[in-house]
Write a structure and sequence with these properties.
CATH architecture: Alpha-Beta Barrel
Radius of gyration: 19 Å
Distance between the termini: 25 Å
Oligomer: single chain
CATH class: Alpha Beta
Strand content: 5-15%
Largest sheet: 7 strands, parallel
Amino acid sequence: MFSTTYNEFVQGMSIVLKNDRLLRALTRQNVDVTPVWMMRQAGRYLPEYRATRSRAGDFMSLCQSPELACEVTLQPLRRYAFDAAILFSDILTIPDAMGLGLFFEAGEGPRFRKVIRTRSDVEKLPAISAKSDLSYVIDAVSLIRRELDGSVPLIGFSGSPWTLATYMIEGGGSKDFRQAKAFLYTEPEVMHLLLSKLADAVTDYLNAQIVAGAQAVQIFDTWGGILSTPNYLDFSLSYMKKIVSKLIKEHEGRAVPVILFTKNGGQWLEQIATAEADAVGLDWTTEISSGRERIGSVCALQGNMDPSILYSSPSVIRREVERILANFGKGNGHVFNLGHGITPEVNPDHVSVFVDAVHEISAQYHT
């Protein structure tokens, strides 16, 4: 948590942010309107993204080209008045750098050529340096930051250790996470060894992004919500706490806010707040009024519109934006976002309705 005001942090910056709403909201400072960005805002719903991906040849080539990653990061900002850019990359870059061989199959999502199933597999995983082993991501961060030229902040990100571990053990996505859960229950000490290695890698990765120019970072705990409460606290949240405690807290004369997002984690908000991140992301299954009542005095909140609303009419989208803003109420500490990533089939025009509605309607809550 940061008690110093945002204005005190921006003194001495080489490039002054023209739009600093996101960083103000994440540190619970005053804003004129509620800032908004969108998970997966650079993605398949945009025709220009699909054209760039086609030019790259495949998804990994797109991720591994700093120039193309920069291009797709900037594309949504040319269409919409988002209050932040988020680095275009993939959460599975760390396991790939550890030698598991990430690839993507059409219609099946990410897959690994090697999987983790034994203590020996875990012990053989190398320690990685983001600066050298993931240089294409770090170079993309630097390039994006330069091209943004202070227009909006840049968000960096990583997957949580638990989420990365599920993919590494399952070999890809899963409907029941049978292998990952069996590993947790039968080899808890080995699971902790794996998670510890991943926590160290995530810490190094996020700090490298911050040094390269990321002005806020988010940890995506996509699969924390599949765990029981004891297992979530022990195998997921504890490692995110470890990461947060070791992240760079200030860079370029300002705070670097941290956002934790556990999908389906609404039952654990009080525990998540003890990680001392600046903001907690909510999915759409937790009312934001409840989230504010429970932890709003401790940290900012991010969220939490159901992405499926974007398939509906503009009037329905505006009505849902209005409802969520009213549920949060007057005051600061709210970053508007979807409760998860935007889906590919959404009409791009509906995103304009969403973003404009947040800015137009939220002004009354910041007078």
